[in-house]
Amino acid sequence: MTWLSVAPVLLASCVCAAQTAGTVEFQARVISIVDGDTITILHDGVPERIRLHGIDCPERKQAFGTRAKQFTGRLAREKTVTLRTHGKDRYGRTIAEVILPDGRNLNHEIVRAGLAWWFRKYAPWDEDLSRLESEARTDKRGIWSEPGPMSPWTFRLMRKTRRKAPLPRSHGE
Hints:
CATH 2.40.50.90, five-stranded mixed β-barrel, two-stranded antiparallel ribbon, globular
């Protein structure tokens, strides 16, 4: 085997690895809003779930959960957007920044409106999200208008802990 016969295979492997490891950018139409930080797009004719990178919106049963979903819908539903991917999450959803047709970053707009936390765990370097959350807190927008809002990750942990707790026994047992 010569170097010339192996080179195309190596090149193809490097391109695939770069696409998997790095950011891929493409356009798609938003076909539904799952919740404030999850949307469904039509990608090459196939529905695909997208988890918005670097943010965490209140859960549906939390205060502002419905408002976050409505806000995301007003900005993105039925729009052709640009996605900048950041890999997949543990549920198989594509993680992405979503750029709206007018050039605004959907992820940033949700945090600016006070309808999401900056998800430091997954985007610790994002100075824009840090600044936008700080401004929303200072201006008491959205979730920050209430004293001591519970983060979605705390809410999910409490819900999970309650489900695992044993049922109380009656005194007659």
